[in-house]
Amino acid sequence: MSRRVLYALAGTTAVLLVGAILHPGFASWSSLRVMLVVASFTGFVAAGQMLVVLVGGIDLSIPWVLNGAAIVLTTSSLGQTSRAPLAVVLALGVGALVGLGNGFGVAWLGVPAVVMTLGMNGVMQGLTLGLSKGLTCASCGSYAPSPLRGLFSGAVPGQLFLWGGVALLMTVLLTLTTFGRRVYAVGVNPRAAFLSGVGVRGVTVALYTLSGVFAALAGIALVAYGGQPSLGLGDPYLFESIAAVVVGGVSILGGRGHYLGVIAGSVTLVAVTTFLAAQRVPEYGRLMIYGLVILAILFAYGREKAHD
Asked: Does the keyword field hold Transmembrane helix (predicted)?
């Protein structure tokens, strides 16, 4: 696990060094600040994706859970400061409820994770479009409350501190608690974990619930940063969350991985995107490179596992 984290950190460093050599100012503080801010949104979503991947699952409902939470935040707060706390709780509650449904379907009903979460993504898309009536414009009052917008602006935006808190939470949860040990046990061998007294179903439900909460948190952060939600806001983050998890050294088969690697993976993806933009590589080229990088890393990790 430590070796994979080192690989991820080395990849981040290499991309930044190459960018700094070819484009002066690429690794300056102002540039790094922007990259870290953008990477933080992927990092929030990837935290939840990592948790379900650790037990051999996947969460495809992330895009519209994120989008739904963002619209719930703005439509329930109407931009008013006094309604902000309740709006944040409601948005996080939406994520938790959807995640709970995903976990119940996967753990108790035996529905494959791909099918369950993809179906839930469609349900959330329909509910979100119905709630918003397809409108997310300023005339509908769909602005984030000013305290949230103020928190996520400034010399050091608040989402970086929030990301640091998420990193601390994930590290403590997975490395220093009994629950974390149970997560890895379920990921390595669910049957052996069950025979050892681990509540496999309970762990699975908890992880999918947390994934929903982290997706909702990303939606809140995006709206606070941009001021306004938009339909399709969460679409890019499904692929990016999976890519960050894979690049970060988390085994797609479960049982291996650390959030520090996912942080490095998130930053690496944003740095690569920034570098390709500086090189004027078109969008389709960026997507192709993304895919090739993920496949290459999976191949390398597969060879590593075979040698182990």
From this structure: yes
